[in-house]
Amino acid sequence: MAYIEIDRNNQVRAAVVFPNVLSDSVSVTPETRLEEAVGLARAISLDIVYKEIVKLREIKPSAYFSRGFIDRVKPLFEAENIGLMIVDAALTPIQQRNLEKALKIKVIDRTALILEIFGERAKTKEGKLQVELAHLTYQRSRLVRSWTHLERQRGGAGFLGGPGETQIELDRRIIDDKIVRIKKELEKVKKTRELQRSARKRIPYPVIALVGYTNAGKSTLFNYLCSAGVFAENLLFATLDPTMRRIRLPGGREVILSDTVGFISDLPHELIMSFRATLEEVLEADIIVHVRDIANENTLAQKKDVLNVLKSLGLKNIENENNYIEVLNKIDLLDDAGRQYLDETAARRSNIVPLSSVTGEGTDRFLKLAEEKLSAGFDTVEVKINAADGKLISWIYKNTDVISASTQNEQIVMCLKADTAALSRLKNKIPVKTLY
Q1: Residue range 277-290: average pLDDT?
Q2: Yes or no: domain 13-118 corresponds to CATH 3.40.50.11060
Q3: Helix 110-121 crosses helix 125-140 at what angle (to 10 degrees)?
Q4: CATH code for the structural domain at 205-374
Q5: Is 16 within 8 Å of 49 (Cβ atoms)?
């Protein structure tokens, strides 16, 4: 569901520009922000032939950049046959239009670029609907030219449509009708998800949700833990649609592991709102696992961006909650000193786990910590079971956390932790001795 028309046999030649407004405070260096924007552009197969950090004392209301910048780069763009400029900032519709007129090429901003990537990555019906809703919401405020291409079969509005400023009211009505239709369909998706969550609670399977900055290694960790074959490459936003798999913790208890869309700095508001149905899986999770790329020099800034998105979803002080785990991923890329520092940090803070989702180092410790957090409020009990009762033994391993098991004559003595629901069901089957 691409919105920028890209001929795969003839790549669009593009320029990426990061405006470094001197009065703005940024959490990362301009060089890092520029490279991230280049990475975003390459994620949709654009051919980046020009990139620049432009220092600005002030933003020009008419075209964002000064006339001097436009006059300087226009011949450069013409010489390089550049057909698209990506501005790593938020442009107003007027600024976008004036830049296009002055440079005689297509211009998109950061939001449009991220929406384009999401359009390519969405595979499920739900994902495509969410992307289209975000895209239409974004475009509705930018009706400054003709939108006759809205009627194309592929759905959605292209960022690189034709020139002109006619039929704006008609086009706005077309967009509004589409938004209403998509919201109705997404409401059905939301109800389906609520039913699925209710079904899981009846079983019950606790949910562990992986969140983190894009390209932090969530999908690689997901694949390592459950061999799911989820698309995981060194690409920004490699995962868009949520994936859930059942895994078994060391004590035998089964849980559901959920892989979610990656976050990014300045994540468009339209996307956060449109993907709320998907992100509700995070809100409902029993354990939230924040996967960080600890080898990235901007890992602290990325952490802040992720926590800001979680706050916007209603998770205000998630770091202080008992159901929060911070995974410091990619330790295989660190030197010995870096790894020693992380081990010392993890020794001081109980909710931190250094690991490598590639080699698997540290994953056992992570699963054990997740198990401990899930059983933190459980009662510890002892039961004696007939060794031949395989069905009951299997049920106990699936629904409780078994601490120890030993054989005495023809009985198995188990020490285990269980929540109130599992304990109530267990008491209906056999005598239970509460330890503490």
Answers
A1: 79
A2: yes
A3: 160
A4: 3.40.50.300
A5: no
With H, G, I as helix, E, B as strand and everything else as coil, classify residue 174.
helix
Q: What is the pLDDT of residues 5-52, one digit of tens each?
A: 545 456 789 999 999 998 777 677 889 899 989 988 988 889 999 999
CA neighbor of 243 nearest in space, from 263, 223, 273? 223
- How is residue 69 written in tokens? 């910048």
Q: Which of 382, 379, 325, 385 is nearest to 355 (CA)?
A: 325
Same fold, 13-118 and 205-374: yes
Dihedral sign of CA atoms 69, 72, 74, 78 in order: negative
DSSP H or E segment with residue 67: helix 67-79
Q: Is the pLDDT of residue 151 over 50?
A: no
Domain boundaries 379-434, corresponding CATH code: 3.30.70
Return the residue matching tokens 């979610």: 260
d(CA 168, CA 142): 10
The SS3 call for residue 244 is strand
Least confident of 44-53, 161-170, 332-341: 161-170
Kindly state the tokens that stand for 374.
């899930």
Question: From CA 166, how far away is CA 319, in angstroms rounded?
Answer: 51
Tell how strand 287-293 and strand 207-212 pair up: parallel
For residues 146-172, give the mean pLDDT.
49
Q: Please, which residues have CB within 8 angstroms of residue 45's CB and are 6 or more apart in sequence?
A: 6, 8, 11
Per-domain boundaries in the chain: 13-118, 122-189, 205-374, 379-434
Predicted pLDDT at 203: 58
Q: How far apart are CA 303 and CA 172, in angstroms?
A: 38
Tokens standing for residue 127: 């994902």
What pLDDT score does 145 carry?
Answer: 47
Chain length of the chain = 436
pLDDT at residue 157 greater than cutoff 50: no
pTM of the predicted structure, to 2 decimals: 0.72
Q: Which residues of 163-193 are buried (b: 16+ CB within 10 A; e: fewer)?
A: eeeeeeeebeebbeebeeebeeebeebeeeb
Buried b (16+ CB within 10 A) or exposed e, 135-152: bbbbbbebbbbbbeebee
Q: What contacts 280, CB < 8 A, 6 or more positions away? A: 190, 193
Could you give the residue ranges of the DSSP H alpha helices within 203-335?
218-226, 269-274, 276-283, 299-312
The amino acid present at 436, given as its one-letter code, is Y
Place of tokens 């959920």: 258
- For residue range 288-321, list pLDDT tens digits in order: 999 999 999 889 988 988 888 888 777 878 887 7
